[in-house]
Specification:
The structure is a single chain. By secondary structure, this protein is of the alpha+beta class. Strands 3, 4, 5, 6, 7, 10, 11 and 12 form an 8-stranded antiparallel beta sheet that branches. Strands 1-2 form a two-stranded antiparallel ribbon. Strands 8-9 form a two-stranded antiparallel ribbon. It is globular, with a radius of gyration of 24 Å. It binds zinc ion (2 copies).
Amino acid sequence: MEPSTQPHTQTQQSQQVVCTLCNNPPITACPGACQELLYCSTTCQGDDAPIHKLVCAQFASLPPKPKGKQILGVLFPENETTPQLKWIHIGGFADEESGISFHEPSVDSYFADDVFPEAMHSERNRVRNRDTRSMLEVWRVPPPKADGKEVVGRLLGEENQCIKALGGGKGAAGPFHAWRGPVLVLFMTRSTGFMVDPGAYRDCNLQDFGDAVDFVYDYGNDVHERRIKEALDSLGRAAAKEMAMGGERGGDGEGQEKGGEEGVESQETGKEDEKGKAENETKAEEGPKNIVIEMEA
Ligand SMILES: [Zn+2]
Ligand SMILES: [Zn+2]
């Protein structure tokens, strides 16, 4: 009789395995306590050591998961230089009418009493030029907002010494942003279709930690914004040109004809199309709500 247990593997088979630093195929693993993080060479392994050693042993000797719904997150403390792995309680409530469960991580205790922390989300590691393994949820002290002439709100908390001391690892410059107060990073499964899916919070792993370090260290680096803006500008120009040529309305042949005969008219047509498109996009954005929901099983 066959044993009923499934073969057990430790690797994440569904995701492409690449070198932690440079995305090349990996051939070696961390020789330290974790024996898990993969690299293409001893060079990349050595280059990543200053960052990875911060948590290599922490991961290998994690205390058992506490009871209740708890997930592993990364805290970059305000006044210490080493990031810390923390068990974060996931609370929530069920909406009786819809049967939908809302999940909410208990993050307030990591922030000062007068702080209402805000979360940012990221699914892209811009330093390593790849998607992140998990969706990052980065909780931080909200920045003061400019309201007309005056900056409203106080700078709550001192500059974060942990992020300042990170060094960022190979390929990262920074930090580009003076983080205030503690920063707590949580992780979720990706691509649920919702901005935040609370049911999909999951424990930080070694790759997630690297993604979190890259995010906080690189945040505010406007090289990426400039690149994105350039890409959008050129996309916008291409789209505008396409619409001026007839776009969605007329079909290819007709549109080209029109564009050739009447320059001014086709420009106006383009504007109308643009307006219509913008309206459609607005409608589309109204669809999925920016909330954390999970269907009750
Ligand atoms: Zn490499
Ligand atoms: Zn290790």
